[in-house]
């Protein structure tokens, strides 16, 4: 039986029976993997309390032909990201990123850029950097990593470069439309050139600079509208973590989630 060893982020973990745990991992080398950690609740040496949502670990596992679940044999901590579980807002943000990755991916498809994206954004949340911009950048880059990059640098219908001020985003078409091409089309969302440029920057910014990005209030509003509509198309539902986030921090509240870095 081949043994696999890979860095991984815990997407989901729940108890199973007396002593076991079922876990969903996003691994660097093999994408999403579901497994069982036998005796996880008893063996501090092999698993300790490392099988927690958001933990960045190194796992060893083997595949059993008779089961759809891999069998975890060991788990070492790389970064605990303990800050994620320290307060409810950080946990909500981390859960949102984690749920997006879990819902948008199929099992056993390697995607190293997506793994690195998730690790980088969990690290931001772990450090308490909770700005709405971070969510939008995560969404737009997650879409790119999965091959659904929104087309923002020209009109997707007439192919003309963007030069005016007034544009629309078509979730169904996956990109921007100029005003003449958008006329009378259903389901399109108005978007300004400023927001388009901001999202183009968000797609290319190096991950170490993401924490410092800042959107104008208009771009925050518009990017949220277009990215939620675009994501909903692939997800087909509202995510539980998103509803939870809105409950603890309603969109119109002034309770100041724009933390300092
Ligand atoms: Zn056009």
Give a verbal description of the structure.
The protein folds into two domains: 3-80, Nucleic acid-binding proteins (OB fold (Dihydrolipoamide Acetyltransferase, E2P)); 89-248, Recombination protein O, C-terminal domain (de novo design (two linked rop proteins), Up-down Bundle). Helices cover 34% and strands 23% of the residues. It has seven helices and eight strands, in the order βββββαααββαβααα. The chain has helices at 88-104, 112-126, 132-145, 179-182, 193-204, 217-235, 240-248, and strands at residues 3-16, 20-27, 31-37, 56-63, 70-79, 166-170, 175-178, 189-192. The longest helix has 19 residues, at 217-235. The protein is elongated and about 65 Å long. The model is unreliable at 253-261 (pLDDT under 50). It binds zinc ion (ZN). The site of zinc ion (ZN) has 7 residues, from strand 7.
What small ligands are held by the chains?
Answer: zinc ion
Number of helices: 7
Based on secondary structure, the structural category is alpha+beta
Strand content: 15-25%
Mean pLDDT: 91
C-alpha end-to-end distance: 47 Å
Number of strands: 8
Shape type: elongated
Lateral strand order in the biggest sheet: 1-2-3-5-4
* Poorly predicted parts: 253-261
Largest sheet: 5 strands, mixed, barrel
Corresponding CATH architecture of the largest domain: Up-down Bundle
CATH class identity of the largest domain: Mainly Alpha
Kindly identify the CATH topology of the largest domain.
Answer: de novo design (two linked rop proteins)
């Amino acid at each position: 039986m081949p043994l696999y060893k890979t860095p991984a982020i815990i997407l989901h973990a729940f108890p199973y029976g007396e002593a076991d745990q079922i876990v969903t991992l996003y691994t660097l080398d093999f994408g999403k993997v579901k497994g069982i950690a036998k005796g996880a609740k008893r063996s501090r040496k092999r698993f300790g309390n490392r099988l927690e949502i958001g933990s960045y670990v190194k796992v060893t596992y083997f595949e059993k032909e008779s089961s759809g679940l891999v069998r975890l044999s060991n788990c070492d901590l790389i970064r605990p990201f303990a800050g994620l579980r320290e307060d409810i807002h950080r946990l909500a943000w981390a859960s949102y990123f984690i749920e997006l990755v879990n819902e948008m991916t199929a099992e056993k498809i390697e995607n190293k850029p997506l793994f690195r994206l998730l690790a980088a954004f969990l690290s931001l949340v772990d450090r308490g950097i909770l700005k709405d911009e971070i969510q939008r950048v995560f969404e737009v880059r997650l879409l790119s990593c999965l091959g659904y990059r929104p087309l923002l640098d020209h009109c997707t219908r007439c192919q003309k470069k963007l030069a005016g001020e007034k544009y629309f985003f078509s979730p169904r078409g996956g990109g921007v439309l100029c005003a003449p091409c958008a006329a009378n089309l259903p389901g399109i969302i108005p978007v300004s050139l400023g927001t388009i440029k901001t999202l183009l920057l968000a797609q290319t910014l190096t991950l170490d600079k993401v924490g410092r990005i800042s959107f104008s209030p208009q771009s925050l509003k518009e990017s949220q509208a277009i990215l939620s509509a675009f994501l909903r198309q692939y997800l087909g539902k509202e995510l539980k973590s998103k509803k939870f986030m809105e409950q603890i921090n309603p969109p119109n509240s002034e309770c100041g989630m724009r933390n300092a870095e």
